[in-house]
């Protein structure tokens, strides 16, 4: 993604040193098309990088003044590199995007930009006190448990909000965290209550070269009224968009990804004689997360059931059972229960992390076993065990787990994500 900040830390291993993944023309054009403004006077792009977004903006809004900012003095100047004749209404600045005084540095007053477009980097900048001021001005400082949770994506969003005028439009590309992670639910709630979030489009994985990270297009109107419903769509690998799902504010606070909400109305796919849908919260009496980390498994005195130990699928009516070699004797289990988390007979094991977590399921039958911290043991009653297991082995179950999981690189699922699933 594009970006421009000084003092970067923890860049991705697959991005450039500034944490940037550059926007393709397809994504740039799609984002610009989502912004329903006909003739803006002033268009801004923070973190312009190679210039894909601003080029698409200039092509659509030919009479608008275009301002671009990037800290990288070696980056090609947007527009000049892609047009035979330099654009007269374009001003480019080499400067730190996350400077609190950016408006003074680039000659723009706060609250004057008509349209802002942005593709922040995947990076967490070293904290500076001025970041708190940027978040506070944007009304977002109170939405974080800790200000140190703010990555470049949220800081870029806040800086754009400071520069936008009321009823100005912001179109940006967001990583998975701000859209789906529980720790950012208050951020989503704040945005939905203070601004009109018009739509969020889930992009296909791999749309940015060098990463399989899940990303999204989002468009909002600053101070455009509280959001009642958000339009969610999904883009296919061919660039085509799905039908729209309308999601109310409460559901949008929980998550804003199309795949999650598209998988929820499972009752419409059931036959008339199927049991009524119920949530995991109703059927699961406990969710036990293992306590042995992967690095400790080789030296642990007993076998530890880990991600690579799930049996292969057994067919439509087969049951994947935890192998006997992981079973502990009664005395050993009693002794170890004080120090580690055990799965017990009747528990259904699923993967908590990993790209293929939706395909991992096994039933504990032979006896207690030690599980790694990458495994959840779902504890349920005899009444619901078979129904729950069959659901997890079904296409619908795999879709539900995959949709509930989130994460930029390694996918993971939380207990609360599980409790939101209906089957």
Task: Please provide a written account of the structure.
There is one protein chain. The chain is an alpha/beta fold and 423 residues long. It has two domains: 25-262, Rossmann fold (3-Layer(aba) Sandwich); 272-419, DNA methylase specificity domains (Adenine-n6-DNA-methyltransferase TaqI, Chain A, domain 2, Alpha-Beta Complex), CATH 3.90.220. Helices cover 26% and strands 20% of the residues. It is built from 14 helices and 16 strands. The strands form three sheets. A nine-stranded mixed β-sheet has the order 3-2-1-4-5-7-6-8-9, sandwiched between helices. Strands 10-16-13-14 form a four-stranded antiparallel β-sheet. It has a three-stranded mixed β-sheet with strand order 11-15-12, with no helix packed on it. Helix 2 links the parallel strand 1 (42-46) and strand 2 (65-70). Helix 4 (129-137) crosses helix 5 (152-163) and helix 12 packs across helix 13 (395-404). The longest helix is centred in the middle third of the chain and has 12 residues, at 152-163. It is elongated.
CATH superfamily of the largest domain: Vaccinia Virus protein VP39
Helix content range: 25-40%
For the biggest sheet, the summary is: 9 strands, mixed
At CATH level 3, the topology of the largest domain is: Rossmann fold
Mean pLDDT: 87
Number of beta strands: 16
Structural class: alpha/beta
Q: What is the CATH class name of the largest domain?
A: Alpha Beta
Distance between the termini: 37 Å
**What portion of the residues fall into strands of 2 or more residues?**
15-25%
**Order of strands across the biggest sheet?**
3-2-1-4-5-7-6-8-9
Q: So what's the overall shape?
A: elongated
Computed CA radius of gyration, to the nearest angstrom: 24 Å
Counted by DSSP, the helix tally is: 14
Second-tier CATH architecture of the largest domain: 3-Layer(aba) Sandwich
The low-confidence parts are 7-15, 80-85, 266-272
What's the structural domain tally? 2
**H-E order:** HEHEEHEHHEHHEEEEHHHEEHEEEEEHHH
């Amino acid at each position: 993604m594009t970006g421009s900040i000084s003092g970067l830390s923890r860049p991705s291993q697959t991005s450039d040193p500034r944490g940037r993944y550059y926007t393709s023309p397809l994504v740039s054009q799609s984002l610009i098309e989502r912004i329903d403004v006909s003739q803006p006077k002033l268009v801004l792009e923070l973190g312009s990088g190679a210039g894909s977004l601003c080029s698409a903006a200039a092509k659509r809004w030919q009479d608008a003044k275009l301002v671009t900012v990037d800290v990288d003095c070696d980056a090609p100047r947007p527009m000049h590199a892609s047009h035979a004749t330099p654009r007269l209404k374009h001003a480019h600045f080499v400067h730190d995007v996350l400077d609190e005084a950016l408006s003074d540095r680039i000659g723009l007053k706060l609250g004057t930009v008509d349209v802002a477009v942005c593709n922040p980097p995947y990076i967490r900048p070293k904290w500076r006190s001025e970041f708190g001021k940027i978040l506070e001005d944007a009304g977002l400082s109170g939405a974080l448990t800790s200000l140190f949770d703010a990555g470049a994506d949220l800081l870029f969003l806040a800086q754009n909000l400071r520069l936008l005028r009321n009823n100005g439009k912001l179109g940006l590309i967001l990583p998975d965290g701000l859209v789906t992670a529980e720790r950012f639910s208050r951020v989503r709630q704040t945005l939905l209550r203070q601004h009109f979030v018009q739509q969020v489009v889930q992009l296909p994985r791999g749309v940015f070269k060098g990463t399989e990270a899940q990303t999204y297009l989002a468009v909002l109107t600053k101070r455009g009224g509280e959001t009642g419903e958000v339009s969610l769509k999904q883009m296919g690998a061919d660039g085509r968009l799905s039908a729209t799902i309308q999601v109310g504010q409460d559901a949008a606070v929980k998550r804003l990804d199309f795949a999650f909400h598209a998988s929820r109305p499972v009752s419409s796919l059931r036959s008339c004689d199927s049991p009524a849908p119920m949530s995991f919260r109703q059927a699961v009496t406990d969710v036990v997360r293992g306590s042995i980390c992967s690095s400790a498994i080789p030296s642990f005195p007993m076998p530890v059931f880990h991600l690579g130990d799930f049996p292969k699928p057994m067919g439509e009516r087969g049951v994947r059972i935890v192998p006997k070699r992981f079973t502990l004797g009664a005395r050993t289990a009693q002794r170890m229960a004080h120090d580690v988390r055990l799965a017990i007979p009747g528990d259904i094991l699923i993967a908590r992390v990993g790209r293929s977590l939706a395909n991992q399921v096994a039933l504990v039958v032979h006896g207690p076993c030690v599980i790694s911290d990458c495994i959840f043991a779902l504890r349920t009653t005899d009444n619901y065990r078979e129904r729950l297991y069959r659901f997890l082995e079904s296409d619908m179950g795999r879709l539900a787990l995959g949709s509930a999981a989130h994460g930029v690189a390694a996918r993971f699922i939380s207990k609360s994500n599980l409790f939101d699933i209906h089957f």
